[in-house]
UniProtKB/TrEMBL annotation:
<feature type="domain" description="WSC">
    <location>
        <begin position="245"/>
        <end position="342"/>
    </location>
</feature>
<dbReference type="Pfam" id="PF00685">
    <property type="entry name" value="Sulfotransfer_1"/>
</dbReference>
<protein>
    <submittedName>
        <fullName>WSCD1 protein</fullName>
    </submittedName>
</protein>
<dbReference type="InterPro" id="IPR002889">
    <property type="entry name" value="WSC_carb-bd"/>
</dbReference>
<keyword id="KW-0677">Repeat</keyword>
<dbReference type="Pfam" id="PF01822">
    <property type="entry name" value="WSC"/>
</dbReference>
<dbReference type="InterPro" id="IPR027417">
    <property type="entry name" value="P-loop_NTPase"/>
</dbReference>
<dbReference type="InterPro" id="IPR000863">
    <property type="entry name" value="Sulfotransferase_dom"/>
</dbReference>
<dbReference type="InterPro" id="IPR051589">
    <property type="entry name" value="Sialate-O-sulfotransferase"/>
</dbReference>
<feature type="domain" description="WSC">
    <location>
        <begin position="142"/>
        <end position="234"/>
    </location>
</feature>
<dbReference type="GO" id="GO:0008146">
    <property type="term" value="F:sulfotransferase activity"/>
</dbReference>
<comment type="similarity">
    <text>Belongs to the WSCD family.</text>
</comment>
Amino acid sequence: MARAFFRLQKFLRRTQFLLFFLTAAYLMAGSLLLLQRTRLVIQQGSRGTSLNQALAVPDEMAGVGIADPRAVQNPRPGARLLVGTDALQEPALDQRHSPRWLTSRNSELRQLRRRWFHRFISDQEPMQTAGFKAMKHVAEHKGTYMGCFTDDSRERTLKGAVFYDLRKMTVAHCQEACAERAYTYAGLAYGAECYCGNTLPATASKPEECNSECKGEKGSVCGGVNRLSVYRVEELRAGARRRRNVIYRGCFRAPENLTDTFPASLIQPNLTVEMCSEFCSKKEFPLAVIRGQECYCGYPTGRFSLRDGADGLRCTRTPNSSSTAEGKYCLVYQTPVQDTRCTDRKFLTTKSKVFVALSSFPGAGNTWARHLIEHATGYYTGSYYFDGALYNKGFKGEKDHWRSRRTICVKTHESGKTEIEMFDSAILLIRNPYKSLMAEFNRKYAGHLGYATDRNWKSKEWPDFVNSYASWWASHVLDWLKYGKRLLVVHYEDLKQSLIPKLKEMVEFLNVTVTEDRLLCVENNRDGNFKRSGAKQKDFEPFTQEMKDLINRYILTVDEALRGRNFTGLPREYVPR
């Protein structure tokens, strides 16, 4: 018996040693294979292989598709579950995951992924010049290539319109966008930025300094670091489909001295709206003002703010008349040119001492509020999440870590004591829950600018969505009222109706001083790039009576809580329907 036991023990010892040896051999083989692949990648990179190939990143994860884990986890919210953000479109996860669990889980992984994304983007922009000698500037482009020019952000010549697309920028896309806005030149920089204008940059650079590959078009050059690839697109303008036509702004009382108010003017017999708009567009002014046979170009200013419109009959022009209402009134039109007095933005030069949140329920207009704040203050806003679509369109604070304190405020949809007390103060943006729920449902199923289909609205998903999100709308406000240290409550409807006064309050709360002309510029560019085109009317009422009863109870609860904290109650349009 003892001998049998000894043999068994000896066998087990040999087996244990064998398993240990096999495990060690497996790990060594894997390490050698990894080193071999790494050396192969480095060799390929030295021969000009793109960074996407060198890192072996799948197509669906390349560029902005690589998101922070906070933007991937999207559980179905309960009364206080906060992950259905503007940046997310993934299906909901299990309800057992609480927001506190989401914000604490894998924190190190989040930072590593975000740091990796930073390096990935920054390393791609300054591409090696060796691999771009064979690139053609005019292979499939209809514009005329003018050359490589220096791009000075402080004295930028092409500043008539500016937009970004980190993922899909092409030369043709930039050319068409500038032509549609009636500009003469289109310039591309950093592989992803497009600038429009009517004046060619003054300082030319060496052709090889424009060496950044277009993000959406392999083999094409889109400028470089502080360098612009410039194209003349005037010949494209005649056939270009206008992105936005000349917009009638209304009839206004003319200022006492039009010549002093407007920097450019033209007197033309038989003057038409098209003539005046074309003249002002070439001068890069957003307003075309007509009084009889006189055309004036300029911006909205304190002397001509476009706030007090007059009866349109006062501006009626007859064939034999040379003026409108004896010269006291004028017609005002918006040209395709962008008002650029407030488009310059940057990160804070020093870290902010006050950590400010821009908090709202999803669908309450947080992206629009960020657009207004950025253009009013001149500083980028940050985000607790990462949304590639927003970053592509110019919200550069999306890529910055939300706790960097380099942005003027940070977007968040979070609630709960821990998440709220991280911030020193907050702008709490509240919108009618009926409108917020519909806006977030549209975003969830059709993106920032689309609309959910009738099939979505009539499916079981809609009532489930309302039951989950309606309570979240209420609990979000209640939590911020309870745990917020210093709050400025802004109602979306008030901001929309009285933009300048409310925006002034927000800017003062952020401790930033701005000029009246800059605020008027913001008003002139108030919509931004994420406004749904019109209100898509449905031939049915999406809210059942049961849904209305539920939402109305939350409205009354939030209204009472606001008044209890000495804030203004909810606007009258929130009153139960």
